[in-house]
Design goal:
single chain; alpha/beta; D-Maltodextrin-Binding Protein, domain 2; 2 domains; five-stranded mixed β-sheet; four-stranded mixed β-sheet; elongated
C-alpha cells in the first residue's frame, strides 16, 4: 500500500523520501499541494500525511514541528531595498504589497488592489518593480528569478514546517515515516 505524503510549496520532502525508499518496501508518493489545501487533502483522503506550514487547525490531528523558516521580502533588482543586507518592518512601512500585508506592517500606507494571484505571479509583479512580496525563505528560493532578490525581515515572526496527519490514520506506516523524519535508523527499536 502506498504512503501518500503531501507537501506545501517550499517544503522539501526529498531526504525523507530517499530514506523511506532505502528502508521500506512500501511505495511512497509525493503530492505537491497549495498551502490552502493542507487540511483538505487529509480530510478528503488524498494524502496520509502533510509536510505543512503551521498551524494547521484541528483536535483530530497529530503534528510534529520540524523546522522554522525565516521571512524574507522579495524585491526587484532596482528596488531601493535590494542593496540592504536585511530589512525591518519599519523599512517596509511605505511599501506596496502584492500578496497580502503582514499584520506587523502598518496597513495605513496606500495599497493598490491586486487581483488574487499565485506566489509565482506575485514575485513576477515584484520583479517589475510594482510592489514587494513577503514569503518564507524556502518559497522565495522555490520561485527564484534573476531579476529579484530576497532580504530577511529581521523582526517578523518565522514560520514553521511540521508533519501533520489525522489521529484516526495513525498506524504502523505513519509511525514508520515519523521514525524516518525524526532520524531513527533502520535498526532502531522504535522502527
Amino acid at each position: 500500500m502506498t504512503l501518500r505524503i503531501a507537501f506545501t510549496p517550499g517544503a522539501t520532502p526529498d531526504k525523507w523520501a530517499r530514506a523511506w525508499r532505502d528502508r521500506r518496501s512500501e511505495s511512497l508518493e509525493l503530492l505537491p499541494i497549495e498551502e490552502s489545501e493542507q487540511r483538505s487533502v487529509l480530510d478528503q483522503g488524498r494524502a496520509d500525511m502533510v509536510l505543512a506550514r503551521l498551524p494547521v487547525e484541528g483536535d483530530d490531528l497529530l503534528c510534529i514541528p520540524l523546522y522554522e523558516e525565516l521571512p524574507v521580502v522579495v524585491v526587484g533588482l532596482e528596488h531601493p531595498l535590494s542593496v540592504y543586507d536585511e530589512v525591518s518592518v519599519a523599512d517596509l512601512a511605505d511599501e506596496q504589497f502584492v500578496l497580502g500585508v503582514p499584520a506587523e506592517v502598518s496597513a495605513a500606507s496606500p495599497q493598490l488592489d491586486f487581483p488574487p494571484m499565485s506566489t509565482r505571479d506575485a514575485i513576477e509583479v515584484a520583479a517589475s518593480g510594482t510592489g514587494v512580496v513577503v514569503v518564507p525563505l524556502s518559497v522565495a528560493r522555490l520561485h527564484h528569478r534573476k531579476d529579484v532578490v530576497h532580504k530577511v525581515v529581521t523582526d517578523l515572526p518565522s514560520t514553521r514546517i511540521g508533519l501533520v496527519w489525522l489521529k484516526d490514520s495513525d498506524d504502523d506506516r505513519t509511525q514508520a515515516f515519523v521514525g524516518v523524519v525524526r532520524g531513527r535508523t533502520a535498526r532502531s527499536s522504535r522502527e
